[in-house]
Amino acid sequence: MSIKLGDTAPDFQAETSLGDINFYEYLGDSWGILFSHPADYTPVCTTELGYTSKLKSEFEKRGTKVIALSVDGVEDHQNWIRDINETQDTDVQFPIIADKDRTISELYDFIHPNASATATVRSLLIIDPEKKVRLIITYPASTGRNFNEILRVLDSLQLVDSYKVATPVNWEEGDDVIVPPSVSTEEARKIFPKGVKEVKPYLRYTPQPNT
User: Fold this and answer.
1) Rounded to whole angstroms, how far apart are CA atoms 106 and 41?
2) Across-strand partners of 122?
3) Is 177 a catalytic site residue?
4) Torsion (CA) 41, 44, 46, 48 in degrees, nearest 10
5) Gap between the Cα atoms of 16 and 66, Å rounded
6) How many Cβ atoms from other residues are within 10 Å of residue 52's Cβ?
7) What is the distance between the alpha carbons of residues 167 and 15, in angstroms, rounded to a whole number?
8) What are the residue boundaries of the structural domains of the chain, listed by start?
9) According to DSSP H, which parts of the chain are helical?
10) How many whole angstroms separate alpha carbon 23 and alpha carbon 94?
11) Catalytic entry in 9, 14, 34, 45
């Protein structure tokens, strides 16, 4: 199965480091981040999970729940979490899915046979409250993810859902945003009281609406 942007994220039951869960019940009405790891006790994953744990308050501010996945078992996850807490100076509180039979990895297309026949690649999905897949990023096993970029995309998605805007290249929270082509300049001047700057008829900026 190949999951694409806009697809409904498949539901599943799973064993995790924090007990059995139903994915949809775990997410509730929150945004969600599901991300896979090649294996437990691996150095890059250890740094990623540690950093994700330290972003707990940032994800909470954005109404987002995090859940990780690895093809190892629950006992390995729990022992590995102790290593992560020790080496990364944190306290991992989000669940790690145990996917020894690779059922969920196959469901979410986390196994890329040409990269590894057994291990999952470093994939990450952002899932909105309607359970729609809004972002898919896949890294090779050797490269750690940039979670500052994940937060940036999450901010952009939530902003875009709340206002009729798009975000330009290298956009950061507080920067000007783009008026999308579907909104006329006349309509934009009514919608965005802070003003609209027209560079070209198709390229128009307005200050970020919620600042």
Assistant:
1) 22
2) 139
3) no
4) -150
5) 13
6) 23
7) 38
8) 7-145, 164-207
9) 23-27, 43-54, 56-61, 74-88, 103-107, 147-162, 185-191
10) 13
11) 45
| φ/ψ (deg, to 5) at 89 | 55, 60
- The pTM of this model reads 0.91
CATH topology for 164-207? Answer: Antioxidant, Horf6; Chain A, domain 2 (3.30.1020)
CA angle 15, 17, 21 (to 5 degrees): 40
* Surface-to-core class of residue 19, CB atoms within 10 Å of its CB (0-12 exposed, 13-18 middle, 19+ buried): exposed
Highest mean pLDDT among 2-6, 42-46, 121-125, 127-131: 127-131
d(CA 209, CA 51): 30
Q: What is the architecture of the domain spanning 7-145?
A: 3-Layer(aba) Sandwich (3.40)
Instruction: Check whether 115 has a pLDDT greater than 70.
Output: no
pLDDT over 90, % of the chain: 81
